[in-house]
Amino acid sequence: MFRLVYLVAAVAATIVTATAAMAAEGQGPAGGFASFIPLILIFVVFYFLLIRPQQKTAKQHQAYLSELKKGHKVITKGGIYGEITGLTDNVLTLEIAENTRIKVTRDAIAGPQVKEDGKQEDTKKVKGG
Questions:
Q1: Nearest in space to 104 (alpha carbons), one of 116, 88, 123
Q2: Residue of 59, 65, 56 lying closest to 112 (CA atoms)
Q3: Closest CA to 125 of 73, 74, 90
Q4: Angle between helices 2-25 and 37-46 (to 10 degrees)
Q5: What is the tens place of the pLDDT at every residue in 57-87?
Q6: Which residues contact 4 (CB under 8 A, 6 or more apart)?
Q7: Residue 128: pLDDT band by 50, 70, 90 thresholds?
Q8: Would the pTM of this model clear 0.85, i.e. be above it?
């Protein structure tokens, strides 16, 4: 991914240099606008390679956080594994060991616990709600 970004930046730098040389020679009245074309192209490439995928990932994470329920097994951003035993609008109660519970914010949840084979762990069915 970074090799591609580096390649695009190198090509854009070459285009900027060539465009600046043409503008310095006075080749046409569009020389001022033509010097901004490489910058616009760089922004478009960075938008599609970096910004847009990051926004998509953030949306998916927000959707995951809003769908959390009791019994889900999660991992926090600090690396703590636990099972949700209680939740409010912003605070989750995680059971990290038998009779050991901690409270964390929803934003502290990194994602679901995963098994070694990369699949999400099954969530337990909590009796009575």
A1: 88
A2: 65
A3: 73
A4: 170
A5: 999 999 999 999 999 999 999 999 999 999 9
A6: 49
A7: very low
A8: no
